[in-house]
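Q: Got a minute? One more chain.
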Amino acid sequence: MTAAEKILYRIMDANYNRAKEALRVAEDIRRFSRLKKNQAKAWKTARHQLTRILLGLPRGYQDLVTCRDVPRDPGRTGTIRDKKGKLKLHDLLFANIQRAQEALRVLEECSKIVNPKSAAAFARLRFHIYDLEKRTAAAI
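A: Always. Here it is, folded:
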């Protein structure tokens, strides 16, 4: 694997993890909210779709993990900013939804180099998340 490919896969690994974790937060918030089981299922389905797309890349998950460099990752300490101690559950929910959308965009762009078919699948999932975000906002 070339140095450029390692950088690309490191970016994709970080964003896959970011998106998957963010979707799980959204899923759990909706799962444990009052009678929001249908929305929780939609978030879970989106999370599983993300994994299916990633596993369809020419180089698999193992190559992403191999390129991972946690000790030297400058972004590993990021957190959601609290507005003077007033962070609410819905703030956490929507911050994670936006995090997933951003990560999916990065995966989409990087996949254009690796596998354009996967790039289109990441784009479809990103737009699906935009729709889920709208439905979630309407339900709160």
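A: The two ends are 47 Å apart (CA to CA).
Q: Perfect, thanks.
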